[in-house]
Each structure stands twice: as C-alpha cells, then as structure tokens.
Design brief:
alpha/beta, 4-stranded mixed sheet, 3 helices
C-alpha cells in the first residue's frame, strides 16, 4: 500500500485569474502566494479547514469540453471535488447569500449533497452527513440512492 497521509492540494486550471480568485475567496479561501500564474505556475489558496487549492493558468482553450458530471459526453478525468460541510442548510444559506447558484442536489441514506460550479464550470460538491462515518461508503444498496446523483 502507498503511504498516503492526506490530500495535499487540488489543482484547478482557470481562465480568468481575478474572477476565480474572487469566487474562491467568497468560499473562504485566502491567497497565500502567486507563484507566477501568467507563466503557468499556481496561485496557492488555503481555507481555514486546511484545504489547499492551486489555481493554474492561464487556460488557453475554451471550456466547451470541460469534464463535467452532468453532460451527455463523458470524458475521462476528474469530474469534481467534494468538501464535507457541517450543515447542508447552512451551506445553502451561505451560497444563496453570496449569489452562488446550485447546479444540482441529492440525498442518499445519511448523505445530503449540493453542487455548485466555479467560474470555469468546474463542479464542487458540498456534502453533509448525519453521523461520523458515512454509511453511503458501504452497504448493499449503494447504487439505488445514487440514481439521483447529477
């Protein structure tokens, strides 16, 4: 087994530095360092939860073939990032107050989830669980509840 300790950071290629920074700042991330965005190096952002993003750019292709979960064409690659939140209701209030629209939502067993998109249409899932260890990660009936998954 590979000795993975945690996710270190998430790299997201973005097309507009200013717009993307503003979006992720609204979610509570702060800019730590711009290592040279214009030369393809990351803008490093961190959330108080410890989640680190590397905004990479500048993107030089249109995002019409972006890898998304809820489009008919299915390209290989990472489809979304998911952040656990304490309360889905609080998350929805926060998103509404900051004019961030939902792009989907579903619930299954002890999981309630909502989906949003960043300015480049990258999918972000926000998950809240009723208990400590999500029962959605195990069990015989896994596929039934995920039919509503975007």
């Amino acid at each position: 087994m590979l000795g993975i300790e945690k996710v270190d950071h998430i790299g997201i290629r973005v097309s507009d530095k200013t717009v993307s920074i503003a979006f992720y700042e609204r979610l509570g991330f702060e800019v730590l360092f711009d290592a040279g965005f214009e030369k393809g190096h990351p803008i490093i952002m961190r959330h108080s939860s410890g989640v680190v993003l590397n905004l990479l750019g500048p993107a030089d292709m249109p995002n019409d073939t972006n890898i998304l979960m809820d489009v008919d064409e299915k390209y290989p690659g990472i489809t979304h990032v998911s952040f656990k939140v304490a309360s889905i209701e609080e998350a929805q209030r926060f998103l509404a107050e900051h004019d961030i629209p939902l792009s989907g939502q579903f619930s299954f067993k002890d999981l309630r989830a909502v989906f949003i998109r960043d300015p480049d249409r990258n999918v972000i899932e926000l998950d809240a669980y009723a208990g400590e260890e999500p029962e959605t990660r195990s069990g015989e009936d896994g596929s039934a509840g995920y039919r509503a998954h975007p």
